[in-house]
Amino acid sequence: MTHVVVAEGLRKRYGDTPALDGVDLAVGEGTVHGLLGPNGAGKTTAVRILTTLLRPDGGTARVAGFDVVRQAADVRRSIGLVGQHAALDEVLSGRQNLVMFGRLHHLRPAAARARADELLTRFGLAGAGTKPVGQYSGGMRRRLDLAVGMICSPPVLFLDEPTTGLDPRGRTEVWDAVRGLVAAGTTVLLTTQYLEEADQLASRVSVVDAGRVVAEGSPDELKSALGGDRLDVVVRHTADLPAAAAIAARVAGAPGDAPGDVSVDVDADSRRVSAPVRDRSAALPEVLRALDAAGIAVADIAVRRPTLDEVFLHLTGHPTGTRRGAAA
Amino acid sequence: MTVTAPEIPRTAAARLRWALADGWTVTLRDLGHWVRKPGQVVAGLLFPVMIVLMFGYLFGGGMTVPGGGDYREFLMPGMYAMTMLFGIEATFTAVARDAAKGVTDRFRSLPIASSAVVLGRSVADMLNTVLGLLVMIACGLAVGWRWHEGPARAALAVGLLLLLRFAFLWVGIYLGLTLNGPEAVMAVQVLVWPVGFLSSAFAWTGTMPGWLAAVAEWNPLSATMAATRDLFGNPGAGGTTWIAEHAAVMALVWPLLLIAVFFPLSVRRYRRLDH
Known about the structure:
The complex is a heterodimer of chains A (about 325) and B (about 280). Chain A is an alpha/beta fold. Chain A has helices spanning about 45-50, 70-80, 95-105, 110-120, 140-150, 170-185, 195-200, 220-225, 240-250, 280-295, 310-315, and strands at about 5-15, 15-30, 30-35, 60-65, 65, 80, 155-160, 185-190, 205-210, 210-215, 230-235, 265, 270-275, 300-305. Chain A folds into two domains: about 5-225, P-loop containing nucleotide triphosphate hydrolases (Rossmann fold, 3-Layer(aba) Sandwich), CATH 3.40.50.300; about 230-305, Alpha-Beta Plaits, CATH 3.30.70. In chain A, a hairpin with a 4-residue loop joins strand 12 and strand 13. Chain B has one domain. Helix content of chain B is about 75%, strand content about 0%. Chain B contains eleven helices and no strands. Chain B has helices at about 10-35, 40-60, 70-100, 105-110, 115-140, 150-180, 180-195, 210-220, 220-230, 240-245, 245-270. In chain B, helix 3 (about 70-100) runs antiparallel to helix 7 (about 180-195), helix 6 (about 150-180) runs parallel beside helix 11 and helix 9 crosses helix 11 (about 245-270). Classes of the chains: A alpha/beta (about 325), B mainly alpha (about 280). The interface between A and B is large, with 43 and 35 residues.
């Protein structure tokens, strides 16, 4: 497979704080590659270097075959950037924004106007084209932002946390738009804080923490490495917690696991026991039966996907919130 | 439809053409704001008019003008220069907003000359300034201000005012790229006032305590105010200190000095927006 984005040993420091500490990346043509990590992990710094906004202190990167430092102008011609904020003029209409950025891509006036109308239709904004962007919803802004990033059909699109701050509906709208772009052949590098988003969109994911890639693989590979789903049991009486934890440990482990192999989290404040499970459909009734047999009153029980915090705890040995924040 | 980006210009002449075209696109964007938000533009134009009315009629009666001239004749050149100072705020706000919203980053990720964005900004702001100055001159004529030394010297005075605004443009761009957050916007909006008042805009420096008069006279605004008063033939020009006697020269030196400092700083800052 041809790699459209290749980074080797990227380093960047802000003062004493390393933001990137030797990042390697390889993004295959026509795929979505997710950079997953908490705030301050270095995701945005990586995107800023790959989009020529920031010079790396060390390492090399090529985008669409061009070196991001020595051939910055050629890189800029090959990329679209959709940053964390909707980078739009709020006073102007959606159409005026598209025409302005089209002109800055050196389309002739008539071509810029035609392209603006085409993109408004494609991103479902035709009806709102003449309204000022300041009156758009979050999802509409993001879609317009994507449309601006797509004016010159760039082969590589960088999306930096495209759905942060959006409601579920806006998020779905953006996801659909991204899927449409990828179906048309665009390569996408996506940063996100949400495991679910990486799961929905990306075919490969690099997990980033403290400026390093700590894991890489397909979403399924990562999830199975993390022990798959988790079982949460909330008991009615705090006194039942140890017994419930023992049951969770017994059921959660795969056949043949020693009891010590299964890590069960117990949170006394919320009376919650949490454990990884391999087989979600079998685990739930089994645990319920065992809890019932032991006479433990259950307030709530559920099987759910691991949160990013748990992913991080597993991969790095520390929760996401405790690290001193480097520049995002 | 697939649209492909045009080839990047490789010759100096082609690059210049791109930069000028891109600069004009950015200018048009600002002019688009005038059309979409005319109220904001009109409010910006009328704000200094309100101050003229306030000082000219509310406080003006108690003001002493050297040689016993008319206070509004004294006030107007000061207000012209103040209007140039208020421009910092407009430039700063526009630049800071673009930086905060990521619009600046998007510009920087486009295949355009880095000079195009600031070029567009300066053309738009200078157009706005010319309009504002015309409104203020009309206001001056309405309240009894006149130029007495002929149109050539009056035009020279207007040139000095625009030069001052051009210098403030780069101060505004630099501050907008450097400071961020609503507190910074507030700070700039507030600080414009003491900088403006500590000049000869509203009161003759001869009526101030010695140390304050010195501060006011060394204020770059005062040099332009004194020089334009002289060129328009309005009262209050001249003085006994070195700085007051050299107002005409300083009205050129101060803006050029500001440009020499803030132009390279702004360009450097724009190229290396490593937050």
